[in-house]
Amino acid sequence: MVDLNKKKIELMNKIERIEEKKLAIEENSMQPESHKPPSKEEIIIVRNCNLEKKCVELEVSVKKSGWCIRSVILFSDGMFPKGGSFAVHPT
Fold this sequence. Notes:
Blueprint: H1 2-29, E1 43-50, E2 55-62, H2 76-79
Antiparallel strand pairs: 1-2
């Protein structure tokens, strides 16, 4: 009878440890809001036509604190989504 009680306690302790590990894994998998990438609303993209330099300037910024933009890849379709273009004629 003593052996059965001892085994029961050991098994209950083992179950508790497994449940604690499971909770720890679940907590680690849930990212805090600050670790998630910025949403589309938190990224600001401004296009400006600079006639003096004869170019299009693209300004990209992030409103979310703790995040920065390290690179930008620009395709003409992304700059002019409706198939437009930018031309500067000498004056």
